[in-house]
Fold this sequence. Notes:
Layout: E1 3-4, E2 11-12, E3 14-15, E4 23-24, H1 27-41, E5 46-51, E6 55-60, E7 69-73, E8 77-80, H2 86-89, E9 93-95, E10 102-104, E11 108-109, E12 116-117, H3 123-126, H4 135-138, H5 150-156, H6 162-173, H7 175-182, H8 188-192, H9 195-223, H10 233-246, E13 248-251, E14 257-261, E15 269-270, E16 276-281, E17 287-292, E18 303-304, H11 313-324, H12 331-334, E19 346-347, E20 359-362, E21 372-374, E22 380-381, H13 383-402, H14 407-417, H15 426-438, H16 452-472, H17 480-503, H18 513-526, H19 534-558
Parallel strand pairs: 15-18
Antiparallel strand pairs: 1-2, 3-4, 5-6, 7-17, 8-14, 9-10, 11-12, 13-14, 16-17, 19-20, 20-21, 21-22
Helix pairs in contact: 6-7, 6-10, 9-10, 13-14, 13-15, 14-15, 15-16, 16-17, 17-18, 17-19, 18-19
The chain binds S-adenosylmethionine.
S-adenosylmethionine binds at residues 53-57, 184-185, 187, 245-246, 266-267, 269-270, 324-326, 328.
Amino acid sequence: MESNCGFCGVQAKLKCAGCQQVYYCNPDHQKKHWKAKHKSECVKPYELASNDEIGRFLMATKAIQKDTVLFAENPLVIGPKWNLDEYEQRSTVVPCVGCFTDCVLGQFFCELCRWPACRPDCPGLANSNLHGLECGVLRFGRPPKPGDDPQSFFDFYRYDALLTLKCLTMQIHHPDLFDQIINLESHYDQRKSTHYYTDADERVVSYLFKNFLDPLQKLERKEGKTVLKTCDRKTLHMIGGLLEVNAMVIPLTNGREICGLYPKGCMLEHNCMPNSFYTFDCSKGMKLTFKTGRDIQKGEHLTTTYTHSLWGTQLRREHLKTNKYFTCRCTRCADPTELGTFLSALRCMGMENEPCGGFQLPIDPLSETSDWKCNRCPVQITHDQVNFLVSKIGEEVDDVMGRKSSVKEFEDLVFKLQNFLHQNHFHLLTLKHSLIQMYGHFPGYHLNELSDEILHTKLKMCREMMSVIEVLDPESFRLTLYAGVILLEQHAALVELKRRQQSTVAAHEKYDLNEILLCLLRAKTILRNEMGTLQGKKLMEQIENALQNIEAQSHDVER
Ligand SMILES: C[S@@+](CC[C@H](N)C(=O)[O-])C[C@H]1O[C@@H](n2cnc3c(N)ncnc32)[C@H](O)[C@@H]1O
């Protein structure tokens, strides 16, 4: 889109990120116009609204175009993930408390609190927005010494409690930001009856009191002055809840993930087919940028996704209910076929185990206990039967995915599950996404070693998966890495088939350069917003190389 520069009137492409209404031919004219006039007239294209069902949310106050920057903001607080799995809780490679790079437990420390650091002079240790927040409180702890029982190290250095402590200590130097944090939605009452609360009670709340806060409060009483005015078990549980509901996962370029809270970013409502997306800039203090993924109409809520786009409806809704404390009623959730993708559909076994060719779909997808019925014959199955089958299959998929399984094991499971599930079922997509990457890369399965049949299977799987993605992410702003991988593999299969076709006298099919080129160009466009991630960068490198190879090949042909 182009318009005339708001300052000098020439053709201009740069748009004011605030109101999205005024264009500029260069940043200097934008600056000058801001000072002279625009500052007083610039209005954001959205506002904070609220209702009883959702609480607060952001709503468009005018039409907003696709790819518009809605806002960019710094975090209120960042820190290690608040939800570590058992394996992560016992890892000897931990994030530096100053800068979150990997470091080995027991090698270097912050000299003041003795928590692990990448080096004793890591600049993040003295940064008042990073380790400076909690270091003063951590100093009350009694860390284990070299040679102590290894378990005592894991017991003492609980990284999943650090972000809660960081939020609590914000009140010391940033009381206004602490107020913003504590006012985020924590679903305290609902969470109180869950195992998350019980687990956090021991792992985080009791741990923080026993090791650091009790000694601090003892000193406060002795000295007659208070450092942490708000410091009780309920506040810590509220912080735990608001982290669970609001914290965003930030993927660092070193592959590690940390978490952050953002003032506006935390206000976006969930939708399984959202209209906006975000990226992080790790080189700029984890700045968050929210953009529109498609055109948005006036009055629409700005939405993002809190769950996995490629999970089936039941799984997504269960995750949202358990972890975010609400039931999603979006158009995708309300459609038994999930917008025609059949992502959760089961093959109907028909009457007397004679498959009818139809698919079992939930009668009322918005009911958690709905029975299912066939879209071709009268057979119905109960919610419990579906649950049993899908969770058994889920266990098998997790098992194969969770260990170093062979290609044969993947193939066998796909072959078996195709009898029960629609080809687009999300459990099959998980396996197929791995399989297309094994075909062509695993020992014994390099591209030139694959049979024509396997090569065609790889290509078919890629095309089928892309057709699902086209429905679930039509504007390509969410499933970007996932789609990038498929397109790269689709291109690889096509290149190999084309090579074979050239060496065969009678080729049945033609694999022209067009589809190959389209895959790569599409992947390049899709990955434009993934350049801040390590995986995105690596994938883009592979795509650029593949494009260069193709260019070189077409020059050879011309010569
Ligand atoms: C990240 S917060 C969003 C801001 C929140 N509404 C507030 O007032 O602070 C997530 C919470 O918002 C609510 N929410 C978000 N999306 C929703 C939706 N589609 N339907 C109902 N509630 C939703 C839920 O209470 C959820 O736990």
